[in-house]
Every structure is written in C-alpha cells, then in structure tokens.
Amino acid sequence: MEIQRTAVVKLSVPDERRDDLTRTMNTFRDAAQRFADRGWEGDDDGCVITSRSRLQPLVYDEIRDDTGLHSDLTVAAVNHAADALSGCVDKMKAGERTSKPVFTSNTTVYNTNAISYFDGYCSLAVYGSGRVHAEYVYPDESPQAEYMDSDNWEKQGAKLRYDQQSDTYYLHVSVTKERDESSGEAESRTVLGVDRNVDGYLAVTSTGVFLGNADLLNHKRREYERRRARLQQQGTRSAHLTIESIGDRFARWSESFLHQASKRLVTEAVSQGCSVIVFEDLEQIRKRISNPSKFQQWAFRELKRQTEYKARAEGITVESVHPAYTSQRCSDADCGFTHEDNRDGDDFACQKCGKELHADYNAARNIAHRFIQNRLKSGSGGATHHLALKSGTLNGNGDYSPSTV
User: Fold this and answer.
1) Is residue 242 included in any domain, yes or no?
2) How many domains, in total, are found in the chain?
3) Closest among 169, 200, 148 to 361, alpha carbons compared
4) Distance between CA 72 and CA 114 in Å, rounded?
5) 248 is a domain residue
6) Of 245-259, 287-301, 343-357, which range is least confident?
7) Does residue 199 share a domain with residue 135?
8) Whole domain around residue 41: which residue ranges?
9) DSSP helix/strand/coil, 167
10) Phi, psi (5° rounding) for residue 133?
11) Higher-pLDDT residue of 187, 360
12) Which of 45, 188, 194, 374 is most buried by its number of CB atoms within 10 A?
C-alpha cells in the first residue's frame, strides 16, 4: 500500500534570484491560462478538452515561442490546465454551475524533471534555462524534516507557492512510501477537526483557525431572495431576465466564497501535517439545528465537497462523524464532562473543570477527538491518530506533544 503525504517547506531564496522566481511564476500562470482557454474552446464537437495529450499539441509550440518558459514547466502548465478543466466537466456532469478556469494564485507546478532535491536545499528550474538553489527552513525535529531528510520517503513533484503577505516562498512537496502491511507498522496520522455553523464563523478548526462569515453568506442570500421576489411581482420578460442574471451572479459569488473557505481549510491541514480532515455528518446536522434552510444545507455540503477535491490533491482524506454532544462536551483531555449548560452562545465554560473556550473551537476539537476514539475502538488500520491543536497534538490516550512547527 502506498502512503502519500505533502511536506510544506519554507524556502530561503537568495535575494538576487527572487525576481527570477517571480517572473517564472507569472509566466507559468499565463501559460496555464492559455492552455485552459484553448481547452475551454472545445474540440470540433464543441466538447471541453480535458485530455493532456490532446490539449498539449494544440498550443504548446506557440506558448513556448511566445513565453520562453522552460519545457518541463510548459508541460506542467498543460497538466495544471487539464486538471482544472476536468474539474469543470465533473461539475457539469453533476448538474452544477461552472465557468472557465481562471488562474490567479502565485503557484508554479514542478515535475520531477524541473526540480531536484539535495541535502538541505533544492534546485528549481526558472524562466529561460537557469536554475535557482533554495535552502529548506524547518526545525530538526519536525514533520518536514522527517519527510525531506529520511530515506523512507520518496520525493516526487512539488508546487511552489508565494505568500505575498509574509513575502515567503513555500514548497509543497509530494512524498510517498510503501507501507508493508505484513510488518504491522502503525502509521501516525494527524486529524484536523472542523465545526461548521449557520451563523457567526462559517467554519472553525481544531487548531483555532476561524474562517468565513456565515452571517455575510446568509445576508447575501436574503438580499438576493428579496430582490427576486420584487421582480417576480412585476411579471415582465425584462424582470425574468434580470432574475436569471442576479441568480447567476449570486451563485458565482457563493461558490467563490466557499472556494476560498475550503482552500484555507486544506492549507491549514497541510501546514499542520494533517492527513485527515473531519466534519460532522450532514444528515445529523439537520437534526441538531432547528429549521435549517435548504441553502444552509447546500452551503455545508458544498464546503465539504470543495474541501474533498482540494484535500485529495494533497493526499489528505476527508471523513465525517456523528455530531451528537460535540458542542456540549468539554474538550479538555483530562475532563470530557458533557452538559447542556456548558455552552452559552459562542462561549463555552465547563461546569466541572472550569475550562473556557470559544464554543465553536471547543466543538471542532471534539469532532476530531470523536474520530480518533472511533478508530481506537474499531482498531482500524492499526494507525496512531493525533488531534491537531493550536499548540501541538494530542493522541487518543491523552498524551500531548507540543508543536515543533
């Protein structure tokens, strides 16, 4: 059985070579966009082109001549575009709204020909024919060190991403190893719990990340519904066309809003070395929340769906657990007292041990804890599971390890 993980490694790039990486990223993004534009135009039958082998010869030579991008990076650009186009087609088949892929992020995809790994540093192909050497930055005792320094993990392709806010380059390296089932080796897995909400924050993680504004999402929905109701009363063709237009606009905004939230969830999971993201089971949420709207149910479902396909690309699985009492249970490892009086709105204060937390953060910790306990009871896979927290991890036996990241 092959195990896949993603090692997120901070890079130290020489000042005199940062412009080369920036130019490479911009050129790669433009090349991927041109491939996506051509694939979206479709073939002779008008079907979107998702095959890499069919898309590449259509504009490869033209893009190489126009951009001067490294040949391996140009191949990676067509693969990047084909993956995005395939995602669009999958949404079409599912009856969902979609539009042509548009690449805006500062990301460059490196295949194994465009990147080389060495002890303590990597060599990256850049615009033209040169290469940039960048040193790894991480503590000796860390998940990154285990993945990058150990011979047990095979390093494959990677994605180079630039964080503009911190002016930092991060390398997301795909690493794999074969797990010998007969040896009884137990795989260590870190779990990120996620609590979804109909108001306040859209989602909160067990590592203390609060993301998305559910109140804004609901406000936009109510605003759209009020305007649609007024137009429906007019009953004119013009009003009908306007309803379709604002409906499409709201749908695009909603999907983009949830896209950003799911992207942040997966980024958090990757940065914490998590291999599992756990949500509450949607069917059980309907029972727990009084009168949830169909729109809120759709938002919950869409957030999980978008998280699933983004997580899959990073080698992370997405699971669900029963949410019963996750909002009432004290998540402190030494307590676990459960009572309805523990929670009061956004505040959680354990009536037994006095632990005080944000209620959604407490619930997210409990969601991850429940998944780990379920695995301990079932003996599933013999793996050791750890709950990802703000300051470290906690295993199923309550043993705490401080973060080394």
Assistant:
1) no
2) 2
3) 200
4) 6
5) no
6) 287-301
7) no
8) 2-183
9) coil
10) -95, 125
11) 360
12) 194
- Burial readout 322-343 (b: 16 or more C-beta within 10 A, e: otherwise): ebeebbbbbbbbeeeebeeebb
> 395 φ, ψ to 5°?
-90, 180
Q: What number is the average pLDDT over the span 1-10?
A: 78
Residue 279 lies in a domain: yes
- Highest mean pLDDT among 264-273, 294-303, 344-353 belongs to 344-353
Average pLDDT over residues 26-49: 92
Structure tokens at 181: 């089932």
CB 52 within 8 A of CB 81: no
Verify that 68 and 199 share a domain, yes or no: no
Same-domain check for residues 262 and 115: no
pLDDT in tens, 334-389: 898 999 999 998 899 999 999 898 999 999 999 998 888 887 776 554 455 667 66
Q: Is residue 306 a contact partner of residue 196, using CB atoms and an 8 Å limit?
A: no
Closest CA to 197 of 77, 332, 338, 358: 358
**C-alpha separations of 23 from 12, 29, 81, 107 in Å:** 17, 10, 19, 12
146-183 tens-digit pLDDT: 888 888 889 999 999 888 878 889 998 988 887 655 44
pTM for the whole structure: 0.60
Is 195 found in the same domain as 142? no
Report residue 49: phi and psi, to 5°: -90, 115
Question: Is 234 part of a structural domain of the chain?
Answer: no
Residues 260 and 169 in one domain: no
- Compute the distance between CA of residue 152 and CA of residue 179 in angstroms, rounded to an integer: 10
Residues 6+ apart with CB under 8 A from 176: 2, 3, 4, 5, 153, 154, 156
Report yes or no: 213 and 257 within 8 Å, Cβ to Cβ.
no
